[in-house]
Amino acid sequence: MKENKKVSNISTMELITAENLNETQAKLIVLATKATDKAHAPYSNFRVGAAVILADGQTFWANNQENISYPAGICAERVLLSYTHANFPALKPLSIAIVAKKSDNTGLATVTPCGLCRQTISEYEMKFESPIEVLMLRSDGSVLKADGIDQLLPYKLEDLNV
Q1: Of 77, 123, 125, 129, which is the active-site residue?
Q2: Cis omega before residue 93 (within 30°)?
Q3: What is the DSSP string of 5-54?
Q4: What does each of the 162 residues of the chain score in pLDDT, given as a tens digit?
Q5: Biggest CA-to-CA distance, the chain
Q6: Exposure check for the chain: N or C terminus, fewer CB within 10 A?
């Protein structure tokens, strides 16, 4: 009889205070925060913004786009990565920041990328053979930093043959 095999994956992320962000990280958080104000979220009023820096130093931002035909809306991260790859397909994304504002407008909400966004980030990491730093602003103003999508998506579709 063949013995069962255990598979485990440990994820460690860094919690960074706002004053300890580097210049690029701080800039991406500011851009993602600004992007939340222009989100199209008339149904949930839950506004999400994302900002990215590409390998050549260009920064871009985007936000979630809801649709009355729920769940046909698009998350901020996928809007952003789709736009940058469609327009700059040779430039790898280095870091992405994600910020959300509560639907009741009382402040920030702590979010991580959804499953679809995690897989999308994974696709670009595979394409460019390089991890993408993921910065997630928390409601207390600190930032949770993942050094790559593996920390948020330990078993990606390409890893299922463990």
Answers
A1: 77
A2: no
A3: ---------EEE-GGGS-HHHHHHHHHHHHHHTT-B-TTT--EEEEEEEE
A4: 788 988 777 889 999 999 999 999 999 999 999 999 999 999 999 999 999 999 999 999 999 999 998 778 999 999 999 999 999 999 999 999 999 999 888 899 999 999 999 999 999 999 999 999 999 999 999 999 999 999 998 877 765 554
A5: 60
A6: N
Helices 115-128 and 76-87, axial angle in degrees (round to 10): 30
User: Is 125 known to be catalytic?
Assistant: no
> Among candidates 78, 61, 66, 62, which has minimal Cα distance to 41?
66
CATH superfamily of 14-148: Cytidine Deaminase, domain 2 (3.40.140.10)
Q: Which of 156, 162, 91 shows the shortest CA–CA distance to 130?
A: 91
Q: What is the rounded CA–CA span in Å between residue 80 and residue 54?
A: 11
Q: Are 64 and 34 in contact (CB under 8 A)?
A: no
